[in-house]
Give the backbone structure.
Amino acid sequence: MSSKILIIGACGQIGTELTTKLREIHGVDNVVASDINTRNLELVNAGPFVILDAKNFNAIKDCCISHKIDTIYLMAALLSATGEKYPMEAWDLNMNSLFHVLNLAKTKQIKKIFWPSSIAVFGPTTPREHTPQHTICEPTTVYGITKQVGERWCEYYYNKYDVDVRSIRYPGIISHKAMPGGGTTDYAVEIYHEAIKKGKYESFLSEKTHLPMMFMDDAIKATIDIMSVPSKDLTIRSSYNLSAISFTPEDIANSIKAEIPHFTITYKPDFRQEIADSWPSSIDDSVARKDWNWSHDFNLERMTSEMLTNLNKKYKP
Ligand code: VAH
Protein backbone atom coordinates (compact mmCIF):
# COMPACT_ATOMS: atom_id res chain seq x y z
CA MET A 1 0.00 0.00 0.00
CA SER A 2 1.39 3.41 -0.94
CA SER A 3 2.51 5.80 1.75
CA LYS A 4 0.32 8.72 2.74
CA ILE A 5 2.77 11.60 2.93
CA LEU A 6 2.60 15.04 4.56
CA ILE A 7 5.15 17.67 3.52
CA ILE A 8 5.46 20.50 6.04
CA GLY A 9 6.97 23.60 4.43
CA ALA A 10 6.02 22.46 0.92
CA CYS A 11 6.20 25.97 -0.58
CA GLY A 12 9.90 26.41 0.19
CA GLN A 13 12.85 25.98 -2.19
CA ILE A 14 13.26 22.23 -1.54
CA GLY A 15 9.65 21.53 -0.54
CA THR A 16 8.32 22.77 -3.87
CA GLU A 17 10.33 20.27 -5.92
CA LEU A 18 10.10 17.50 -3.34
CA THR A 19 6.29 17.69 -3.48
CA THR A 20 6.29 17.30 -7.27
CA LYS A 21 8.72 14.38 -7.18
CA LEU A 22 6.90 12.54 -4.37
CA ARG A 23 3.60 12.93 -6.24
CA GLU A 24 5.20 11.42 -9.35
CA ILE A 25 6.28 8.42 -7.26
CA HIS A 26 3.33 7.91 -4.90
CA GLY A 27 0.44 9.55 -6.73
CA VAL A 28 -0.91 13.07 -6.30
CA ASP A 29 -3.64 12.11 -3.84
CA ASN A 30 -1.13 10.36 -1.54
CA VAL A 31 0.96 13.48 -0.97
CA VAL A 32 -0.51 16.31 1.12
CA ALA A 33 1.42 19.56 0.76
CA SER A 34 1.23 22.09 3.58
CA ASP A 35 2.66 25.47 4.44
CA ILE A 36 1.94 28.49 6.61
CA ASN A 37 0.52 30.35 3.62
CA THR A 38 -0.49 29.88 -0.01
CA ARG A 39 2.39 31.87 -1.53
CA ASN A 40 2.98 29.22 -4.20
CA LEU A 41 -0.41 29.05 -5.93
CA GLU A 42 0.85 26.63 -8.61
CA LEU A 43 1.70 24.13 -5.90
CA VAL A 44 -1.45 24.87 -3.92
CA ASN A 45 -3.58 24.07 -6.97
CA ALA A 46 -1.58 20.98 -8.05
CA GLY A 47 -2.95 18.58 -5.45
CA PRO A 48 -4.02 18.20 -1.79
CA PHE A 49 -2.91 21.29 0.15
CA VAL A 50 -3.54 22.50 3.71
CA ILE A 51 -2.55 25.65 5.55
CA LEU A 52 -0.51 24.32 8.49
CA ASP A 53 1.57 26.03 11.18
CA ALA A 54 4.61 23.82 11.82
CA LYS A 55 4.73 25.20 15.38
CA ASN A 56 1.19 23.94 16.19
CA PHE A 57 1.27 20.34 17.48
CA ASN A 58 -2.50 19.84 17.51
CA ALA A 59 -2.84 21.18 13.96
CA ILE A 60 -0.19 18.74 12.71
CA LYS A 61 -1.77 15.87 14.68
CA ASP A 62 -5.27 16.63 13.36
CA CYS A 63 -3.94 16.87 9.79
CA CYS A 64 -2.20 13.50 10.13
CA ILE A 65 -5.33 11.86 11.51
CA SER A 66 -7.73 13.30 8.96
CA HIS A 67 -5.45 12.45 6.02
CA LYS A 68 -4.24 9.10 7.49
CA ILE A 69 -0.62 10.26 7.16
CA ASP A 70 2.14 7.69 7.82
CA THR A 71 5.18 9.60 6.54
CA ILE A 72 6.25 13.21 7.19
CA TYR A 73 8.87 15.35 5.43
CA LEU A 74 9.53 18.33 7.71
CA MET A 75 10.98 21.00 5.41
CA ALA A 76 9.97 24.15 7.30
CA ALA A 77 12.80 26.15 8.89
CA LEU A 78 14.32 29.62 9.20
CA LEU A 79 17.71 29.46 7.49
CA SER A 80 21.12 30.85 8.47
CA ALA A 81 20.86 34.53 7.48
CA THR A 82 17.26 34.98 8.67
CA GLY A 83 18.08 33.07 11.84
CA GLU A 84 20.70 35.67 12.75
CA LYS A 85 18.11 38.43 12.36
CA TYR A 86 15.41 36.59 14.33
CA PRO A 87 17.23 34.10 16.65
CA MET A 88 14.35 33.24 18.97
CA GLU A 89 11.92 32.79 16.10
CA ALA A 90 14.43 30.48 14.40
CA TRP A 91 14.84 28.43 17.59
CA ASP A 92 11.05 28.26 18.04
CA LEU A 93 10.22 27.15 14.50
CA ASN A 94 13.21 24.90 13.86
CA MET A 95 13.09 23.07 17.20
CA ASN A 96 9.41 22.91 18.08
CA SER A 97 8.38 21.72 14.63
CA LEU A 98 10.87 18.86 15.02
CA PHE A 99 9.64 17.96 18.52
CA HIS A 100 6.03 17.90 17.28
CA VAL A 101 6.83 15.49 14.48
CA LEU A 102 9.08 13.27 16.61
CA ASN A 103 6.47 13.06 19.38
CA LEU A 104 3.76 12.21 16.85
CA ALA A 105 5.96 9.40 15.61
CA LYS A 106 6.22 8.00 19.16
CA THR A 107 2.51 7.15 18.84
CA LYS A 108 3.47 4.92 15.88
CA GLN A 109 0.81 6.44 13.59
CA ILE A 110 3.76 8.04 11.78
CA LYS A 111 6.01 5.31 10.41
CA LYS A 112 8.82 7.41 8.91
CA ILE A 113 10.18 10.98 9.10
CA PHE A 114 12.57 12.97 6.95
CA TRP A 115 14.21 15.96 8.60
CA PRO A 116 16.83 18.13 6.84
CA SER A 117 20.01 19.07 8.61
CA SER A 118 22.78 21.16 7.07
CA ILE A 119 26.51 21.68 6.80
CA ALA A 120 25.69 24.60 9.08
CA VAL A 121 26.12 22.17 12.01
CA PHE A 122 29.86 22.63 11.49
CA GLY A 123 31.72 25.67 12.80
CA PRO A 124 35.09 27.46 12.62
CA THR A 125 36.77 24.73 14.75
CA THR A 126 35.67 21.95 12.37
CA PRO A 127 38.30 20.62 9.91
CA ARG A 128 37.41 22.59 6.75
CA GLU A 129 38.60 20.24 3.99
CA HIS A 130 36.71 16.97 3.38
CA THR A 131 34.91 17.43 6.69
CA PRO A 132 34.29 13.93 8.12
CA GLN A 133 30.96 12.47 9.24
CA HIS A 134 32.07 12.44 12.87
CA THR A 135 33.97 15.58 13.91
CA ILE A 136 33.90 18.77 15.97
CA CYS A 137 30.58 20.60 15.66
CA GLU A 138 30.64 24.07 17.27
CA PRO A 139 28.25 26.05 15.03
CA THR A 140 28.27 29.84 15.44
CA THR A 141 24.84 30.50 13.90
CA VAL A 142 21.43 29.99 15.50
CA TYR A 143 20.42 27.96 12.46
CA GLY A 144 23.48 25.74 12.87
CA ILE A 145 22.77 25.30 16.60
CA THR A 146 19.18 24.22 15.85
CA LYS A 147 20.45 21.70 13.30
CA GLN A 148 23.14 20.35 15.63
CA VAL A 149 20.67 19.95 18.53
CA GLY A 150 18.03 18.61 16.16
CA GLU A 151 20.42 15.87 15.05
CA ARG A 152 20.98 14.87 18.69
CA TRP A 153 17.21 14.63 19.26
CA CYS A 154 16.68 12.59 16.08
CA GLU A 155 19.27 10.06 17.21
CA TYR A 156 17.78 10.04 20.74
CA TYR A 157 14.22 9.35 19.47
CA TYR A 158 15.56 6.58 17.23
CA ASN A 159 17.50 4.92 20.06
CA LYS A 160 14.93 5.52 22.85
CA TYR A 161 11.58 5.23 21.03
CA ASP A 162 12.51 3.43 17.79
CA VAL A 163 11.32 6.41 15.73
CA ASP A 164 12.43 5.90 12.12
CA VAL A 165 13.71 9.44 11.44
CA ARG A 166 16.23 9.97 8.63
CA SER A 167 18.30 13.05 7.90
CA ILE A 168 20.77 14.61 5.48
CA ARG A 169 23.19 17.51 6.05
CA TYR A 170 22.32 19.46 2.90
CA PRO A 171 25.00 21.74 1.43
CA GLY A 172 23.93 24.91 -0.36
CA ILE A 173 21.24 23.99 -2.89
CA ILE A 174 20.82 25.61 -6.28
CA SER A 175 17.55 25.46 -8.24
CA HIS A 176 15.52 27.45 -10.77
CA LYS A 177 11.93 26.59 -9.82
CA ALA A 178 11.51 28.19 -6.40
CA MET A 179 13.68 30.91 -4.89
CA PRO A 180 15.57 30.12 -1.66
CA GLY A 181 14.80 32.27 1.36
CA GLY A 182 17.17 33.71 3.92
CA GLY A 183 20.19 31.53 3.28
CA THR A 184 23.89 32.37 3.06
CA THR A 185 24.27 30.26 -0.08
CA ASP A 186 21.42 32.08 -1.84
CA TYR A 187 24.01 34.03 -3.88
CA ALA A 188 24.52 30.87 -5.95
CA VAL A 189 20.88 31.07 -7.09
CA GLU A 190 20.61 34.84 -7.41
CA ILE A 191 23.67 35.01 -9.69
CA TYR A 192 21.96 33.00 -12.43
CA HIS A 193 18.81 35.13 -12.36
CA GLU A 194 20.85 38.37 -12.47
CA ALA A 195 23.12 37.03 -15.21
CA ILE A 196 20.11 36.63 -17.49
CA LYS A 197 18.18 39.73 -16.40
CA LYS A 198 21.09 42.21 -16.13
CA GLY A 199 24.27 40.50 -17.34
CA LYS A 200 25.92 41.32 -14.03
CA TYR A 201 25.80 40.42 -10.33
CA GLU A 202 27.11 41.86 -7.08
CA SER A 203 28.02 38.93 -4.80
CA PHE A 204 27.49 39.28 -1.04
CA LEU A 205 30.26 36.69 -0.54
CA SER A 206 33.89 37.28 -1.53
CA GLU A 207 35.32 35.71 -4.67
CA LYS A 208 37.32 33.00 -2.89
CA THR A 209 34.52 31.78 -0.57
CA HIS A 210 34.66 28.04 -1.24
CA LEU A 211 31.49 26.23 -0.10
CA PRO A 212 29.88 22.80 -0.56
CA MET A 213 26.95 23.03 -2.97
CA MET A 214 24.51 20.81 -4.85
CA PHE A 215 22.03 21.10 -7.72
CA MET A 216 18.43 20.55 -6.62
CA ASP A 217 17.95 17.39 -8.71
CA ASP A 218 20.75 15.73 -6.71
CA ALA A 219 19.29 16.93 -3.41
CA ILE A 220 15.86 15.52 -4.31
CA LYS A 221 17.46 12.24 -5.45
CA ALA A 222 19.30 11.92 -2.11
CA THR A 223 16.12 12.69 -0.15
CA ILE A 224 14.08 10.08 -2.03
CA ASP A 225 16.92 7.54 -1.81
CA ILE A 226 17.52 7.79 1.94
CA MET A 227 13.80 7.36 2.61
CA SER A 228 13.60 4.18 0.55
CA VAL A 229 16.64 2.43 2.05
CA PRO A 230 15.89 -0.45 4.48
CA SER A 231 16.19 0.88 8.03
CA LYS A 232 18.78 -1.80 8.89
CA ASP A 233 21.19 -0.37 6.28
CA LEU A 234 21.41 3.05 7.93
CA THR A 235 24.32 3.45 10.35
CA ILE A 236 23.76 7.19 10.99
CA ARG A 237 20.66 8.37 12.84
CA SER A 238 21.83 11.92 13.52
CA SER A 239 22.33 13.15 9.94
CA TYR A 240 24.38 12.05 6.93
CA ASN A 241 27.09 14.21 5.41
CA LEU A 242 26.24 14.78 1.76
CA SER A 243 28.37 16.31 -0.94
CA ALA A 244 28.32 16.96 -4.65
CA ILE A 245 30.31 20.02 -5.82
CA SER A 246 32.26 22.75 -4.03
CA PHE A 247 32.96 26.09 -5.63
CA THR A 248 33.55 29.81 -5.12
CA PRO A 249 31.58 32.78 -6.49
CA GLU A 250 34.49 33.24 -8.90
CA ASP A 251 34.12 29.64 -10.13
CA ILE A 252 30.39 29.97 -10.72
CA ALA A 253 30.89 33.33 -12.47
CA ASN A 254 33.44 31.75 -14.81
CA SER A 255 31.03 28.89 -15.60
CA ILE A 256 28.38 31.52 -16.49
CA LYS A 257 30.84 33.52 -18.62
CA ALA A 258 31.44 30.38 -20.69
CA GLU A 259 27.78 30.71 -21.80
CA ILE A 260 27.27 34.49 -21.37
CA PRO A 261 30.64 36.07 -22.29
CA HIS A 262 29.60 39.62 -21.37
CA PHE A 263 28.58 38.62 -17.81
CA THR A 264 30.43 40.53 -15.06
CA ILE A 265 30.60 40.01 -11.29
CA THR A 266 31.57 42.35 -8.46
CA TYR A 267 31.97 41.54 -4.77
CA LYS A 268 30.56 43.35 -1.75
CA PRO A 269 30.65 40.99 1.25
CA ASP A 270 28.02 41.59 3.91
CA PHE A 271 27.16 39.94 7.27
CA ARG A 272 26.74 36.61 5.53
CA GLN A 273 30.49 36.44 4.82
CA GLU A 274 31.17 35.66 8.48
CA ILE A 275 28.60 32.86 8.38
CA ALA A 276 30.11 31.38 5.22
CA ASP A 277 33.62 31.61 6.70
CA SER A 278 32.48 29.41 9.62
CA TRP A 279 31.46 26.56 7.33
CA PRO A 280 33.58 23.82 5.68
CA SER A 281 34.83 24.20 2.14
CA SER A 282 34.30 20.53 1.23
CA ILE A 283 32.54 17.52 2.75
CA ASP A 284 33.46 13.82 3.04
CA ASP A 285 30.23 11.94 2.32
CA SER A 286 31.80 8.48 2.10
CA VAL A 287 29.44 7.08 4.78
CA ALA A 288 26.36 8.00 2.72
CA ARG A 289 28.00 6.53 -0.38
CA LYS A 290 28.72 3.32 1.52
CA ASP A 291 25.43 2.97 3.46
CA TRP A 292 22.96 3.84 0.71
CA ASN A 293 24.98 4.07 -2.49
CA TRP A 294 24.66 7.83 -2.79
CA SER A 295 26.24 9.52 -5.81
CA HIS A 296 25.67 12.93 -7.39
CA ASP A 297 24.98 13.58 -11.08
CA PHE A 298 25.57 17.32 -11.56
CA ASN A 299 28.92 19.07 -11.74
CA LEU A 300 29.24 22.87 -11.96
CA GLU A 301 29.18 23.05 -15.75
CA ARG A 302 26.12 20.81 -16.10
CA MET A 303 24.32 22.73 -13.32
CA THR A 304 25.08 26.08 -14.97
CA SER A 305 23.79 24.83 -18.31
CA GLU A 306 20.59 23.54 -16.67
CA MET A 307 20.06 26.76 -14.72
CA LEU A 308 20.62 29.11 -17.65
CA THR A 309 18.54 27.03 -20.06
CA ASN A 310 15.54 26.98 -17.72
CA LEU A 311 15.85 30.59 -16.57
CA ASN A 312 16.09 31.76 -20.16
CA LYS A 313 12.71 30.09 -20.76
CA LYS A 314 11.36 31.88 -17.67
CA TYR A 315 12.64 35.38 -18.52
CA LYS A 316 12.74 35.21 -22.32
CA PRO A 317 9.86 32.87 -23.26
C1 VAH B 1 21.64 28.45 4.20
N1 VAH B 1 20.88 27.29 2.20
O1 VAH B 1 22.36 29.12 3.46
C2 VAH B 1 21.07 27.14 3.64
C3 VAH B 1 22.02 25.98 3.86
C4 VAH B 1 24.38 25.16 3.92
C5 VAH B 1 23.48 26.34 3.79
O2 VAH B 1 21.73 25.30 5.03
O3 VAH B 1 21.36 28.79 5.34
